[in-house]
Amino acid sequence: MSTKLYRIQGEIMKQHFFEPLTFNLLISAAKEEHALERVYAELGSRHRAKRHEITIENVSEEEEE
User: Fold this and answer.
1) What pLDDT score does 65 carry?
2) Which of 17, 24, 38, 40 lies 20 to 30 Å from 60 when distance is taken between CA atoms?
3) Phi-psi region for residue 14, left (φ > 0), alpha (ψ -120 to 50) or beta?
4) Residue 57: exposure state from Cβ atoms within 10 A (0-12, 13-18, ≥19)
5) How confident is the model over 22-65, as pLDDT tens digits?
6) Which residues contact 55 (CB under 8 A, 6 or more apart)?
7) Residue 27's domain spans which residues?
8) In the prediction, which pLDDT does 17 show?
9) How many CB atoms neighbour CB 25 within 10 A?
């Protein structure tokens, strides 16, 4: 399987945040679903955000360099 590069944009809204925390990540994965799972795992680990607190706004496939 070949891996593709995905740019994932969105925001995290937690109760103690005054405004949403935006993110823009580049993730290498075989499928879009795998890239989304990795985003949820990384942001959950880094910011202790639950899945319902993470909103994915845009997923686009990028060209690998």
Assistant:
1) 67
2) 17
3) beta
4) exposed
5) 999 999 999 999 999 999 999 999 999 999 999 999 999 998 76
6) 10, 11, 12, 13, 20
7) 4-62
8) 79
9) 14
